[in-house]
Amino acid sequence: MAAAAEGVPATRREEPPRATSEDYKLLENMNKLTSLKYLEMKDIAINISRNLKDLNQKYAGLQPYLDQINVIEEQVAALEQAAYKLDAYSKKLEAKYKKLEKR
Fold this sequence. Notes:
Strand content: under 5%
Region (Disordered): 1-22
Organism: Rattus norvegicus (Rat)
Structural class: mainly alpha
Shape: rod-shaped
Helix content: over 70%
Protein name: Biogenesis of lysosomal organelles complex-1, subunit 2
Order of helices and strands: H
Distance between the termini: 138 Å
Family: Belongs to the BLOC1S2 family.
Number of helices: 1
Pfam family, one: BLOC1_2
Largest sheet: none
């Protein structure tokens, strides 16, 4: 009976090293996969950075045209205001003319 009792702890002592070895292999595989994912993410970040630089350069090239559009937009707004004022003034003149015509 003592021999049987001694055999059980010996078996239990062997199991943890196997489990530890399996855990180590699992962790090693997870580490490799994580490294690969980070490399993929690094490549994606590099591509995004390149694309962003390209877009910034294109935007810088378009900036003079965008500035011209803003100036034209301001001029159109001023022209619209002048047209409204001219329209109001012409209506006043027309009303005065009709008053004078009635006399």
